[in-house]
Structure to design on (160 residues):
């Protein structure tokens, strides 16, 4: 009976997750379409709300479809309380759970990730701090950008 459930559930889950991924890509594409100051200015108004609410909800639903149920104990720090979050170790797709629970903050990511099909568009909508592994000044530039965003008094989303 368990094998039969797996045979039925696996394709259903795969179809649902694919649909949610495409929907997230569409939302990210709409929110960043003709974005003024692409990457250099923070998303504002409906664009920012769309990313924070819709992408967060879609991520929650995707993890639920995969079989994960996440419960938060305590209160997530607000932007004025903590402009920077630290999450460790961040070595897997579970990082997206933290992003969804914290309102889709900006993240620090490899520059190469932004050119990945589908995921690159979704990642770009989070306005990441892109780290270039070829640039010798990348570490210094990344720290400067994180500091600039943290001191922006709420113009930029939190950075994780």
């Amino acid at each position: 009976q368990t094998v039969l459930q797996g045979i039925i559930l696996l394709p259903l889950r795969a179809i649902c997750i694919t649909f949610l991924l495409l929907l997230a890509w569409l939302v990210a594409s709409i929110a960043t379409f003709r974005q003024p100051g692409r990457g250099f200015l923070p998303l504002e108004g409906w664009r920012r709300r769309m990313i924070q609410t819709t992408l967060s909800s879609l991520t929650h639903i995707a993890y639920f479809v995969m079989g994960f149920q996440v419960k938060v104990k305590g209160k997530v720090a607000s932007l004025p309380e903590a402009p920077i979050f630290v999450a460790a170790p961040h070595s897997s797709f579970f990082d997206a759970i933290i992003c969804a629970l914290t309102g889709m903050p900006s993240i620090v990511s490899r520059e190469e990730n932004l050119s990945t099909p589908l995921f690159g568009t979704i990642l770009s909508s989070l306005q990441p701090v892109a780290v270039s592994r070829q640039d010798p000044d990348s570490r210094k530039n990344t720290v400067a950008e994180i500091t600039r965003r943290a001191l922006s008094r709420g113009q930029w989303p939190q950075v994780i």
The two ends are 43 Å apart (CA to CA). The chain has a mean pLDDT of 86.
